[in-house]
Every structure is written in C-alpha cells, then in structure tokens.
Design brief:
The chain is an alpha/beta fold and 422 residues long. It has 14 helices and 24 strands. The strands form 6 sheets. A 4-stranded mixed sheet has the order 22-23-1-24. Helix 8 packs parallel to helix 10 and helix 11 runs parallel beside helix 12. The model has no long low-confidence stretch (mean pLDDT 96). Bound molecules: ligand EPZ. Ligand EPZ binds next to helix 1, helix 5, helix 6 and helix 12.
Length: 422
C-alpha cells in the first residue's frame, strides 16, 4: 500500500493550480443520463471517485472517452441498464446521483442503498421521499431501492435539512417531470448552481439556483451540451490552510474566491494574510503564530464541513483555545485521535472539539480514516517537527488530484512511497 513520508518544517512558496471540483463533477456526470447524445466535459478532475462513477455510467451503457487533459466525452444515446450495483455504490456513495436521472429518463431504476460511511449514517431518505412525492413507486429489496414511474410529475418538496445531493438528485429528476416542482429549503452550494446551469444549457427550465427555493418547470426532453467543471473550493481551502500549517506564501490559481468568502474571513481572523489578487487567484501568507478562533460548520454559505478537519490542524498550534463544532455529520471527528498522536491537545465533547494550542506538533505514523481527515493529516505533517508517515492514501486519492506532487512543487518535503508489499 502507498504511504506519504512528510518531513515537516519547510515553508511553502510558489503557485498551486486548483483542479475541477469533485462535488460538481459527480452530479454533472450523472446528468448526462438525462439526454441522448454526446456531451463534452472539461476540467474533470482525475480522482478515484470520478473513475468509479465513470465505471458505473459505462455499465449503464454510456460510451466514455477520457483524454489526458481533463476532457471527457460521453455518449448517452443508448442506455443498456438501469441498475447501479452494490460493489460500485458501496465504494462511492454519490453513485446514488444516478437514481433521479434514471427514473426520469427510463421510468425505472435499481440502485443499491449506499450504506453508511466513516463520517456518519448518511441516509438518503430525502432523495427517496422526494421521488415518491413525484409519483415514483419505490420498493426496498435485497439492499436495493427499486423505483418505477411512467412519468414523474411535479411536486412541492421540503427538505428538513438542506441536502446537497438530495437537492441535486431531485432537481435532475424534476427537469423531465410533467409540471412544476418546487424544492424548499434546498441546498445552495456552488456545485448545485453549476449543475443547474448545465441543466439549463440542456434545455431545462430552472429558477432560484443558489437560493433556498428552486423551481423547475418540467420539459419533455433535454439535449446534450458542453460544460467546464468549476474549480474545487474545498481543494483551494485545503491549500490555503497548508500555508497556515507549514508557513510561507502561496498563490492559489484557478479558484473562485467568492466560493470561499466565509473561509477567508475565518482564516483572516486567525491571522493568515489572504488577498484576492484576481478573479481566479488568491495570495496567502503566514505571518507568525495563528490566533485561536471558534468554528461552527454550516450549510453553504457557512463554514464548510469539508474544511473542518483542516482548520482543526491550524488551531492545534494556534495561540489559545478553539471550539470547533460539527453540525452537519454526527461522526466527523475521526481525525482527532490521529492528530493527538502528533501531540495535539484536543478534547471532544459531543458535537464539539475543544482544541488547546500547543507550541508545535511532532511527526509520527498516522492512519487516514476518511477523505478530508486524510488531507488534515498531510497538513499536520507539513508543520510538525520531524517526519510524519500518512497511511490510508486511498481516502486522499478519492478527492485530491496529485496532492503530494502539488505540494512538492512548492517546497514541501513530501514523498509517496510503497510499503514492501504490505
Ligand atoms: C455532500 O454530501 C458532499 N458530497 C459532501 O462532501 C459534503 O460534506 C456534504 O454534501 C455537506 O456539504 C458530494 O457532494 C458528493 P447532505 P451529501 O445530503 O449530499 C443528512 C466530501 O468530503 N441527510 O448535504 O451526502 C445527512 O446525514 C464529501 O467531498 C439526511 O438525513 O450530504 C447530513 O447530516 C463528504 N437524509 C445532512 O443531511 C438525506 O436523505 C447533510 O447531508 C440526505 C442527507
């Protein structure tokens, strides 16, 4: 198994280019099921999660042609299956995003229930209830959800919690439903806006993208289109925080500063110098020890849960005491135990972690438990004294394109090695 060896204490300097957003690419790839013909997508990130979804789309009958430069052509003229098998959905829970498009396009779908994951139960009840409100008949059998609908009909759907993929799944389904669908308390993430804009380019009638109320007027059919995946705001936030961990100065290229407004405000309050130097560039510089700030994760535009583990690393060596509260997922503190192996002083009380700043962290072998936790361990290694070994890289590779290479190019002493056959 691969692992990372990180020799800490080397400040960063140079430019990092952000890749296309994983959480925009996954719904946009799923949306190609909605129309017959050839789609041309650019800036598709080369990630494990994307590879798994492309495998699934191929099993459904889509012809996929990937080029080296992030361009992917998909021909969805003929679908051969309506089933998303357990072995793929188990590996990548966002595969559930094919459910809405399959029912809308074919009138049926058989999708494995995704099961839980390290950060929480991750139910999909909002997805299923919404489809039932739209007239689909659902049966849960042998771990699969089997959905049937001659033609979905518009419905008024209220999300108890603004679910990101729930909003995406039902927005896609509603595009081909008969009549109007209103999604209330919908999620407002930029990835949803990006998906909605692509659907509009395909001929969908959608209003309210980026607000809590999205209105979709169903149409009879949609047509294929081209689409450039937006930059990954979570990857950008991770590299901004890499400067917070390791010190130095970076220019983050190909990012959208507006998508990081809350994160930038929070990190400036912690003492990081952050300047927007262009519509797609941010300059970040560390000037001395950071101050402790409290953080509470919220749905967009609040502080993103996907950057909670990373900011915890910064608070681990900040001035005083920081309270980090995770309101989205019930078990997203798996990185705490690993950070404590590096010398962090953190106590978890329910949904909050109390982080007492220590002078510095000390390198040690650590194990990644989930995608964003793995990124936080890399950041911790960059700033720690001594050498940190990060194992469990399959988590990291799900959501970060060539993270070790990007960091090595800006001065980090980081190597990806293979353990002898273990
Ligand atoms: C999306 O997950 C992202 N994944 C996650 O990113 C992100 O952390 C999350 O949104 C929150 O922002 C993708 O976009 C592929 P939710 P999603 O539905 O859609 C509860 C990463 O690291 N809920 O917004 O699965 C749920 O349990 C990943 O890139 C229900 O109860 O999250 C959670 O508490 C991790 N029933 C809350 O809502 C449902 O039917 C928000 O979940 C759906 C969700």
């Amino acid at each position: 198994m691969d692992y990372l060896e990180i020799k800490g204490g080397h400040a960063l300097s140079g430019k990092v280019r952000i890749s296309g957003a994983k959480n925009a690419a996954l719904p946009i790839l799923s949306a190609t099921l909605l129309a017959e013909g050839c789609f041309n997508l650019q800036e598709v990130p080369d990630l494990e999660d994307v590879k798994i979804l492309l495998e699934l789309l191929k099993e459904l009958g889509i012809k996929v042609k990937k080029s080296a430069n992030g361009q992917v052509e998909l021909d969805s003229s003929k679908l051969e299956s309506y089933e998303a098998p357990y072995d793929l959905v188990r590996k990548m829970r966002a595969s559930v995003l094919v459910l809405g498009p399959l029912v809308a396009r074919l009138g049926k779908a058989r999708v494995s229930l995704p099961g839980g994951c390290a950060i929480g139960a991750r139910p999909i009840d909002f997805h299923l209830k919404g489809l039932e409100l739209m007239g689909a008949k659902l049966v849960i059998r042998e771990g699969f959800v089997e959905a049937k609908a001659s033609r979905l009909k518009g419905a008024h759907i209220y999300f108890d919690i603004p679910s990101v993929t729930g909003t995406e799944n039902l927005m896609m389904a509603a595009c081909l439903a008969k009549g109007k669908t209103v999604l209330e308390n919908a999620a407002k993430e930029p990835e949803i806006v990006a998906l909605g804009e692509m659907l509009i380019n395909m001929g969908a009638k959608i209003q309210g993208l980026g607000t809590a109320t999205i209105v979709i007027e169903g149409v009879k059919s949609l047509k294929p289109t081209t689409c450039k995946i937006i930059p990954d705001r979570i990857e950008a936030g991770t590299y901004i925080m890499a400067v917070g961990a390791a010190g130095g100065e970076l220019i983050i290229e190909n990012c959208i500063p507006d998508h990081l407004e809350t994160v930038i405000l929070k990190l400036k309050a912690a003492g990081l110098k952050i300047d927007v130097i262009d519509e797609d560039k941010i300059k970040v510089k560390k000037k001395g020890r950071l101050c402790s700030v409290d953080v509470k994760t919220q749905p967009y535009p609040g502080f993103p849960t996907d950057l909670q583990a990373q900011i915890m690393v910064l608070m681990a060596t900040a001035g005083k005491l920081s309270v980090i509260t995770e309101t989205i997922f019930e078990n997203r503190f798996m990185h705490v135990a690993e950070l404590k192996r590096l010398g962090a002083d953190i106590r978890v009380e329910g949904r909050s972690a109390i982080v007492k700043g220590v002078k510095h962290l000390n390198g040690a072998p650590v194990m990644a438990t989930d995608l964003r936790a793995s990124a936080s361990l890399v950041l911790a290694g960059l700033g720690a004294k001594g050498t940190t070994i990060v194992q469990g890289l399959h988590h990291l590779d799900r959501g970060y394109e060539k993270m070790d290479e990007k960091l090595a190019q800006v001065g980090a002493r980081i190597r990806r090695l293979q353990s002898d056959g273990v």
